[in-house]
Amino acid sequence: MNAIIEEPVISAEEPTVFFVDDDPGIRESLRWLLESVGLRLEAFASAREFLEKFDKNRPGCLILDIRMPGMGGLDLQEHLRAEGCTWPVIILTSHGDIPLTVRAMRSGAIQVFEKPVGDQMLIDEINAALAKDREQRLAQHSSQTVLERYQTLTRRESEVLDHVANGHSSKEIGKMLGVSYKTIEAHRAKIMRKMHAAGVPELVRLYLTVRQDASRN
């Protein structure tokens, strides 16, 4: 009996804006601003305080001050990236510094703002960051579903799928594997069903998704 693969579910948790800045006045100011437009904020006075509660599986985005006592914003950003955190990052700085800006962008920051930044400009960028985070999570769950389906294939079915993806016909695959055309057709039908593919083009696309994910890992 084939294993039943449940579709992964995107977290229903409300997305959160995580903010790390050692200035209490700025933290409260941003809290007031975001709450006024219905956005949820969790603010932290230091990187250490933030890391104690850090959970990369929560949906949201991150706003970091560059210069803080202890671990600064850029070091925290790079640390989170190494941990596999994919939150979009917005950097705030009081020090217009081109090398720091370049470093932040190379580490994946989507925007760098010099303080003070206009309220609407910041809100627009935060909304864009939250939308990007959701898109990334949807794509990740989609890839995970395809991989789980692929892992239900038997060794022989995986072998047949390799040949199908390389453009071989059932008759050609049968000759290469030393089995009958009907046997290959039976395998193909099972593969299509397990992979939830409506046709060969979609099956090949799903196969390529699995291969691309494997190459990244």
Mean pLDDT over the residues: 87
Report Rg: 24 Å
| Class by SSE composition | alpha/beta
What's the main sheet like?
5 strands, parallel
The backbone outline, from C-alpha atoms, is elongated
Q: State the separation between the terminal residues, measured CA to CA.
A: 30 Å
The total number of structural domains is 2
In CATH, the topology of the largest domain is named Rossmann fold
Strand order within the widest sheet?
2-1-3-4-5
Low-confidence stretches: 1-11
Q: How much of the polypeptide forms β-strand, as a percent range?
A: 5-15%
Q: Can you offer a commentary on this structure?
A:
The chain has 9 helices and 5 strands, in the order E-H-E-H-E-H-E-H-E-H-H-H-H-H. The protein is α/β, with parallel strands linked by helices and 217 residues long. 56% of the residues lie in helices and 12% in strands. The two termini are 30 Å apart. It has 2 domains: 16-138, Rossmann fold; 153-216, Arc Repressor Mutant, subunit A (Orthogonal Bundle), CATH 1.10.10.10. Helix 1 (24-36) links the parallel strand 1 (16-20) and strand 2 (40-44). Strands 2-1-3-4-5 form a 5-stranded parallel sheet, sandwiched between helices.
What tags apply to this protein structure?
217 residues; alpha/beta; Rossmann fold; Arc Repressor Mutant, subunit A; disordered N terminus
SSE topology:
Layout: E1 16-20, H1 24-36, E2 40-44, H2 47-53, E3 60-65, H3 73-82, E4 89-93, H4 98-106, E5 109-114, H5 119-150, H6 155-165, H7 170-177, H8 181-195, H9 200-216
Parallel strand pairs: 1-2, 1-3, 3-4, 4-5
Helix pairs in contact: 5-9, 6-8, 6-9, 7-8
